[in-house]
Every structure is written in C-alpha cells, then in structure tokens.
Amino acid sequence: KNEVEQSPQNLTAQEGEFITINCSYSVGISALHWLQQHPGGGIVSLFMLSSGKKKHGRLIATINIQEKHSSLHITASHPRDSAVYICARRNQFYFGTGTSLTVIP
Amino acid sequence: DSGVTQTPKHLITATGQRVTLRCSPRSGDLSVYWYQQSLDQGLQFLIQYYNGEERAKGNILERFSAQQFPDLHSELNLSSLELGDSALYFCASSVGGGYTGELFFGEGSRLTVL
Sorting pLDDT into bands at 50, 70 and 90, what band is A40? Predict the structure, then answer.
C-alpha cells in the first residue's frame, strides 16, 4: 500500500485551462514536496510545504495538515507544463505514483 | 542547473556485473539522497547520507551499498546486477540532514542491465 496517493494518474488539458492535481497521505508529515519530471527524465523540486500555501509564477501549492491533503494548481496552463508531477512525503521518503499532464495547444 | 552532478549519465552492462554511480552534491549541501526510478515501481528512496554518516535507509537491496566521502561526494555501488536493476538512479542533495530542507536533484544515471 502506497502511503501517498495521487489523482488523477493522467490528465489532458487544453492550453489555458486551470489544472488541479491532488495528493493525499495517510500518516502525519513534517513536509511535503511537489516535484516535476520532464520527458527527458530530470527532476525539479517545485515546492516544499509544511503548512498553508505557496505560489511560484503560475503554480500554486496548498496543504491541509489536518486533512492530510495537498493540491498543486496550474493556472493558464501551457504546453511546456506537460510533465509528470509527483508529490512526496519527506520524512519517510514516500512518493506518489505521479500525475502525467499533457497540455494541448 | 541544480548544481548536483551525477556520472555517468548512461551505463549499459551485463547481469552479474558491478557498477558505481557517482554524485557530487551542490556546494554547501551536507546531505545526499539516492533514489531508484523503475518503470513499474516509480520513485523509491534508497538511502541518505549526512556529512559522511548514514542517516536514513529505505528500500535498498543488500547487493547495493553507498558511502559519502569526506569531500561530500557520494557513490552508489550496485553489484551482482540483475535485469530488474535497470532503472534511473537519481541523487539529490540538501543543506541539512532533517526533513524540511529543499531538495536539489541531479539529472540521473540511466542503468541498463542486459
């Protein structure tokens, strides 16, 4: 059983759409990461959250510690956002299975 | 550029062989983490070193071992390789040894075992 669950597994959106990817975890955490992995394979850490909300450009990440849930939002999506997005619990190093996002022009 | 350097980028070898993957962390980062990403298992945490000492251990096989050297670079040794060891191996670094620091990933080493 994976300690970190992500949904949806796959997502296709039209350019400009607002996108939400969800992550839930079963055990309390000290921090949660959102990672982005492009088709070439490299991984970039987008956010590290321990509470509240963070924003970077068109990306917004929120976390609700009580509900053990986090969301990653992409506003005004663009084809270059196409990637796999992975959430990860930091303290036990568990990873979600990833959400594969394709943004169509 | 994350500042984390991994070598080699690609490696093809045969079953039963042994390989060494190398990771140089960002300047100033004391922690190095190793991860394995295979098609069927996704990303899995293998092991963490902090300032030369093992800090946390994940799903690392007994055939695998790692160490962190005084200059803070780390090596992951994979021995008696099996077909199932074919995967992308990532290392990441962070400043501290705890659980709240930002992670910076290398570009990965792609291992193919034939």
Answer: confident
**3-state SS class at B1:** coil
Which tens digit of pLDDT belongs to each residue from B38-92?
887 788 999 999 999 999 999 899 999 999 999 999 999 999 999 999 999 999 9
| % of chain A exceeding 70 in pLDDT | 96
Whole-angstrom distance, CA of residue A3 vs CA of residue A90: 12
Q: How far is A40 from chain B (nearest CA, A)?
A: 9
Instruction: At B83, give phi and psi (nearest 5°).
Output: -55, -35
Do B99 and A41 make contact, defined as CB atoms within 8 angstroms?
no
Q: Any residues with CB less than 8 A from the CB of A69 and at least 6 apart, and which?
A: A22, A23, A24, A25, A63
Q: What share of chain B is helix, strand, coil (3-state, %, to 5)?
A: 5, 55, 45
Which residue matches tokens 């068109």? A58
CB B93 within 8 A of CB B4: yes
Q: Give the separation between CA B113 and CA B72, rounded to whole angstroms.
A: 28
Q: Touching check for A9 and chain B: CB below 8 Å? A: no
